[in-house]
Amino acid sequence: MNIRQIIRQKRRQLSPVERNIAQQAIYQQIFHHQAINTAKNIAIFLSFDGEVETTPIIEYLWQQNKSVYLPIIHPFSSTHLLFLKYTSETQLIKNKFGIFEPKLNVLNVFPYHQLDIVFTPLVAFDQRGYRMGMGGGFYDRLLANYQTQQILPIGLAFACQKVQHIDNKPWDIKLPQIIYA
Ligand SMILES: Nc1nc2c(c(=O)[nH]1)N(C=O)[C@@H](CNc1ccc(C(=O)N[C@@H](CCC(=O)O)C(=O)O)cc1)CN2
Ligand SMILES: Nc1ncnc2c1ncn2[C@@H]1O[C@H](COP(=O)(O)OP(=O)(O)OP(=O)(O)O)[C@@H](O)[C@H]1O
Question: Could you tell me the pTM of the whole model?
C-alpha cells in the first residue's frame, strides 16, 4: 500500500466515537473563526471516504446567511472543477467518483476568483501545510494562484492524517491554514 492508501484507510477506520469527538472540536474552531465569520462566498465539499463530515458546517454557514458552493468535475475539461451554488433546493447527483455534486445548471456557476474561502479536502498533510489529495490534481490546479485572488484556502482533516513530511512536487500548493483535531 502507498501512503495515500494507508492514510485513506486510517481515516475510514476511525471509530464513530473518535470521529465524533474530533469533528466537534473542528466545528468549534470553525464557528469561532474570524475569516470564516466575515466571509460571504464559501466553497466547501460533500464528504466521502471517511472525510470530516461537512454537513454541520454547511448548516452553520446557511444559518449565517453565507453563500455556499460545491465543486463539480468540469463537464468538458475533466481535470478542472467548477463551483455551483448549493442551497437546500439543490438537486444532487453522483459523479464518476461516487461523490454527490449539484446538477449542472450554468445559471448556478460561480466564478472561482470571487470565492472568499475554499475549504479544501485532503488525504495527508504536514506541518508546513503541504497536502496530498486524492491524486487528481484538482485542488492544486484550482489553488495555483490563490494568493493573487484574495482567496483563503483552509484544509479540513483529522489529526491521524498528519504525516512527518509530504514529499512535495513543484505544483503542490502549501495551505496557509489547516483545521484539524
Ligand atoms: N469530498 C470530496 N470531493 C472532491 C474531492 C475530494 O477530495 N473530496 N476532490 C479532490 O480533488 C475532487 C475529486 N477527486 C477525486 C480524485 C480521485 C478519486 C478516486 O477515488 N480515484 C479512484 C480511482 C479512479 C476512478 O475511480 O476513476 C481511487 O483512488 O481508487 C476520487 C476523487 C472533487 N471533489
Ligand atoms: N497547477 C497544475 N497545473 C497542471 N497540472 C497539475 C497542476 N497541479 C497538479 N497537476 C497534475 O495533476 C496530477 C496529480 O497531482 P497530485 O498527485 O499532486 O494531486 P493531489 O494533490 O493528490 O490531488 P487533488 O489536488 O485533486 O486533491 C499531477 O500528475 C500533476 O501533473
Answer: 0.96
CB 80 within 8 A of CB 43: no
pLDDT tens-digit map of 13-70: 999 999 999 999 999 999 999 999 999 999 999 999 999 999 999 999 999 999 999 9
Q: What homologous superfamily does CATH list for 3-121+131-154? A: NagB/RpiA/CoA transferase-like (3.40.50.10420)
Q: Hey, what's the cell of 131?
A: 497536502
CA 44 → CA 2, 12, 61, 98, 118, distances in Å?
27, 20, 10, 17, 6
With 90 as the cut, is the pLDDT of residue 1 above it? no
Ligand nearest to the CA of 50: 1
In 36-78 the beta strands, taken as DSSP E runs, fall at 41-43, 67-73
135 lines ligand 1 (CB under 6 A): yes
**Residue 180 assigned to a binding site:** no
pLDDT at residue 82, rounded to an integer: 98
Total residues belonging to the chain: 181
